[in-house]
Amino acid sequence: MSIVKINVLTVPAEQREVLEQRFGARAGTVDSADGFEWFELLRPVEGTDQYLVYTRWRDEESFQAWMEGPMKAAHQGGGEGGERPKPAATGSTLWSFEVVQQASPKKG
Ligand code: HEM
After folding, report:
1. Residue ranges of the domains in the chain?
2. Smallest Cα–Cα separation from 96: which of 8, 2, 3, 33?
3. Nearest atom, ligand 1, residue 85 CA
4. Does domain 3-78+87-98 have CATH number 3.30.70.100?
5. Which helix (H) or strand (E) is 19 found in, with range?
6. pTM exceeding 0.85
7. What atom in ligand 1 is closest to the CA of residue 7?
8. How many whole angstroms from 7 Cα to the centroid of ligand 1?
């Protein structure tokens, strides 16, 4: 079964809009990666101030391949002297999961 990688972003309240706009501006950057299955940006409503960047992949290899290549481009790779806007997030942590059970609504 698939694997889930969640990037947990700590985002100060006044930076939420900036963060969401930046994600909006980068829509489509992960969609065609081999083994990519799902992405959701989850905005906290209650119980936490952390945004979750939920991604699901066919397997660990697909995720690693994306991380080593396209992901860096999608995150503007840093360095190289380029002017880089200050991140809206003040911290990030990567969580890894295996999907053990799943369900989706019955069709028809
Ligand atoms: C689960 C895999 C992912 C990892 C490990 C990851 C890594 C990171 C990290 C470390 C940051 C912190 C802020 C920074 O330095 O820019 C960040 C922010 C960001 N990521 Fe990702 N990311 C992941 C998935 C994605 C996906 C799928 C997208 C695009 C659809 C994306 C787009 C962005 C954007 C727009 C920011 C906001 C930068 C800011 O203003 O704080 N990320 N990501």
Report:
1. 3-78+87-98
2. 3
3. 40
4. yes
5. helix 16-25
6. yes
7. 1
8. 7
